[in-house]
Write a structure and sequence with these properties.
- With 224 residues, the chain is an alpha+beta fold.
- It is built from four helices and five strands; from the N terminus they run αββββααβα.
- The protein has a five-stranded antiparallel beta sheet with strand order 4-3-2-1-5.
- Strand 2 and strand 3 form a beta hairpin.
Length: 224
């Protein structure tokens, strides 16, 4: 019962991480315009994402335009696009594998050892996808902060951290947490199984000794 609850908890946390990863990949709020110094045009907000940039005017109208070419992106956003796509695929694959390896899922001729291997694979993929997602999120955040405090960069070109970056950190944490839960579950099952195999052996040895003593006493009584 406890193992099933642990698996379900890991699957739910992993599912939240998968949904968050897909949302971060599509969101345009990676870079948000900063209102500092002489940049006081507060009625217009600029969002820059991996696939498009948007202009929102006075919370009334928003216009988005897809990038004409990948070369129009900065190097960090170009790499982030590929890494986020890879992270999305890995997280979704880990989620599907975790469902197959669940105890409540019945597969044709699947033993408990095979399911433990499947769960372990899902856990490792969750951790890998979380690490892959952390790389672009932290990279873009570092670039934004460096440009913000760089006096050479024009004030109009300075940006702030967008909502997508914060959501990306949360999603990556959920993926890594789900992977850790699945890996710990496999480790606990391995210890339980090894203890279960060793305990009956000791019990059988003790029973055989008692049986031999009983037979010897019975034979002596018959002889008398």
């Amino acid at each position: 019962m406890v193992s099933s609850a642990l698996q379900i908890t890991g699957l739910l946390i992993g599912g939240i991480g998968v949904i968050g990863t897909f949302a971060v990949t599509g969101m345009p709020q990676w870079r948000v315009s900063a209102f500092i110094e002489n940049n006081i045009i507060v009625f217009e907000t600029i969002w820059e994402g991996l696939w498009m940039h948007c202009i929102r005017q006075a919370n009334i109208r928003m216009q988005c335009k897809v990038y004409d070419s990948m070369l129009a992106l900065s190097p960090d956003l170009q790499a982030s696009r590929g890494l986020m796509c890879a992270g999305s695929v890995l997280s979704f694959l880990a989620f599907i594998i975790a469902i197959i390896g669940m105890k409540c899922t019945r597969c044709a001729q699947s033993s408990w050892q095979a399911k433990d291997c499947i769960i372990l694979t899902a856990g490792l993929l969750f951790i890998l996808s979380g690490a892959v997602e952390l790389i672009p999120v932290c990279w873009v955040a570092n670039t934004i902060i460096s440009d913000f405090y760089n006096p050479i960069v024009n004030v109009a070109q300075k940006r702030e951290l967008g909502e997508a970056l914060y959501l990306g950190w949360v999603a990556a944490f959920c993926l890594i947490a789900a992977g850790a839960i699945f890996c710990c579950f496999c480790r606990c099952c391995e210890k339980t199984r090894s203890y279960g195999h060793s305990a009956p052996t000791h019990y059988r040895t003790h029973s055989q000794r008692l049986h031999r003593k009983t037979e010897s006493s019975y034979s002596k009584s018959q002889y008398v």
